[in-house]
Structure formats: C-alpha cells, structure tokens
Amino acid sequence: MQYQVFIQSQPNQRFVASIVGMPAITGEGTSEEDAIAQAKTALQSQLAGGKFVTIEVNLTEQLSEVMSMKYAGIFADDSTFEDWMEKLATIRREANATEAER
Predict the structure, then answer these.
(1) Between 69 and 3, the higher pLDDT residue
(2) pTM, whole model, 2 decimals?
(3) Cα separation, 102 vs 27, whole angstroms
(4) Which of these, 37, 25, 31, lies nearest to 9 by C-alpha position?
(5) Please, what's the b/e burial string for 11-26 (b: 16 or more CB within 10 A of its CB; e: otherwise)?
(6) Plot region of 70 (φ>0 → left; ψ -120 to 50 → alpha; else → beta)
(7) Structure confidence by residue, pLDDT tens digits, 51-64
(8) Which DSSP helix (H) or strand (E) runs through 30?
C-alpha cells in the first residue's frame, strides 16, 4: 500500500514526518529521509498489530428526519421562489424534450 507523508521542518534542523490520515503515526529525524524512514517503521509496526475493517452506520429515522429538515422553510418569505420554481420546471421540461429527441 502507499501512504502520503507530510513533512515539517522543525527548529534545530529537525524534521517531523506524519502519515496523512493517521496523525498519531510520526517519525522524527535530522533529515527528511530519516524522518520518513522513522514514520515508515512506525506505520509498519502499527499495521502489523492490527487491520483495517469497513463498518456501516445506519442513520436512525429520527436523525435522518432532522437532517432533512435542516433547510425546511428557508424560502418561506422569498417572493421570488415561485418564479424560480417555474423557471426550473421549464428548464427540466426542455432538457427532457432534448434528451427524448436524441
């Protein structure tokens, strides 16, 4: 696997290399190459003792409803909203007609 490494120059001619996406895995050295080597060793050690897994998180119906209601009513007092919706419907009809002609 390939990992990106972020390298920072520190005072006293030191370098810190951090594995992108895994901020707890770093290496330090007197050169960029040394810092990268230290980070690589730390990453290999970390990976040897664990594994990556994929999980799925299902939103509850209540949370999903709250998220979908975030913008509910934001156009309630907008006098141009109905005109905008009509123009949008016209654009959709024209696009559908053009697509049907192909």
Answers:
(1) 3
(2) 0.53
(3) 58
(4) 31
(5) eeeebbbbbeeeeebb
(6) alpha
(7) 889 998 776 766 66
(8) none
Kindly report, residue by residue over 68-89, the tens digit of the pLDDT.
677 778 888 888 988 999 999 9
Strand residue runs (E) in the chain: 5-10, 14-19, 22-29
Please report, for residues 24, 58, 71, 73, 75, the alpha-carbon distance to residue 61 in angstroms, rounded to integers and kept in the order given. Answer: 35, 9, 17, 20, 25
The answer to whether residues 15 and 8 touch, using CB atoms and an 8 Å cutoff, is yes
Q: What percent of the chain has pLDDT over 90?
A: 53
Q: Is 38 left (phi over 0), alpha (psi -120 to 50) or beta?
A: alpha
